[in-house]
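Retro notes
What went well: the complex prediction finally ran end to end.
Inputs used:
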Amino acid sequence: MASPTENGTKARLLQAGRKVFAEHGLKNATIRDICALAGANVASVNYHFGGKEKLYVTVLQDYLERENRRHPRDLGVTPQSTPEERLRAYVRSFLLQTLGDGDPENERLGKLLIQEFIEPSQHFGEIIERHCRPTHNMLLDILRALLPDADEGTIKRCSESIVGQCVLFDYAKEAINRMHPDLALKASNIEHITDFIMQFSLGGIDRIRSAKQQ
Amino acid sequence: MASPTENGTKARLLQAGRKVFAEHGLKNATIRDICALAGANVASVNYHFGGKEKLYVTVLQDYLERENRRHPRDLGVTPQSTPEERLRAYVRSFLLQTLGDGDPENERLGKLLIQEFIEPSQHFGEIIERHCRPTHNMLLDILRALLPDADEGTIKRCSESIVGQCVLFDYAKEAINRMHPDLALKASNIEHITDFIMQFSLGGIDRIRSAKQQ
DNA sequence: ATGGAACTAAAACGGGCGTTTTATTTTTCG
DNA sequence: CGAAAAATAAAACGCCCGTTTTAGTTCCAT
């Protein structure tokens, strides 16, 4: 009977959906492409998932959960670690999730999330609350430890600066590849990039701290 | 006969194209919508522009040129200004272009550019070379002045950190609005945000400089 | 073995799309 | 003016899409 997530049509559809949605986005992907890739009938998506959009949101949520399991923001640290260590784990996790696992199928799946950010669907709210908000709160906690005397506005601004640096490698991946291919995020330089963002950010945070205190 | 860019069907189509493409993107926008908004026949886009995609790229290029004319990266500074002043003008221009001019029609037009970044069309290369590359080179020049002894790799990494901070307000506009609406980019706080990014970045650059020199 | 449920397959539906064709009106200019 | 050119309008074409329908198959408990 095979476990529900093994080789059945539904599992193959989900896998094909991952690939095709990642490649073409929600609107441009076609059920016919997905079914062809899955070796299934065009009606199967409706039968197993209830429609194209339902498959889409399933794929997206599944991707986010996997990614967070693979590269949690607090990998290798505890609440007792220094704020610097926790920040480094956070940045590193961000970049690792952006980089993907080398499988080109998953590599492009991040686009689905970007698409939601640019043109939110009706599921954006749930994604924010279930994924982004808790994750971002971890960063705010770290920054509160780094800037114990700062007001919340400053904390949030710092978090924006850090997230911005991380997110660029996802957002501008194609542009960086064309303009400065040596600067792109790769498995071989992810530690280097993490180090750089850490130095830059800690320098920025120090500057903010002294400006506030003076 | 009216100047070519006054009130003719072609001009109205371009204006309607701006609005509809901005609202729905290349694929989702329909020429029927565009023509209805322009008060023109469905065939008029093909007649005047040669097809939907041609109209799209016309709209996009036109938008970029306007935006760069309205908020050039070196507004109010000269090559003789201090690097800090030039960097501030650069960051401010970035944010002003992201913010738009208050006209909701133009405000959402930036999405077209973001879409190109996420899912490049065949015109992406031209956009990069004609718009992004020259603009980015200005930033690299500024950073070379700020870090005269740094290697090119460091210069580029710094530019990524700065661009990342600016781009976040475009990329994550919807998410920020939901999670921390007080932090969103608005006309009322654009100077404050510019100041913050400047301080954070100058702190980061200083840290990078001393790390390299030591 | 058999009846029913789960699943798969094939085909057609209904609608929206970009584009083309054809016809009509408006403009231009000798 | 009057004919050629430019511009608009109306209609139809042809394609692709998500979904539904209908029919057939497989599976499993009884």
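What we learned: Chain B has two domains: 1-59, 71-213.
What to try next: split runs per interface for comparison.
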